[in-house]
Amino acid sequence: MLRCTVKFCGGCNPRYDRGEAYRTVRASLADTAAFSYPENGIHYDVLLIVRGCTGCPYLYEEIDADHRVILTAGDQVDTAIEQIRHLS
Question: Which of 24, 29, 41, 44 has its CA 20 to 30 A from that of 50?
Answer without folding.
Answer: 41
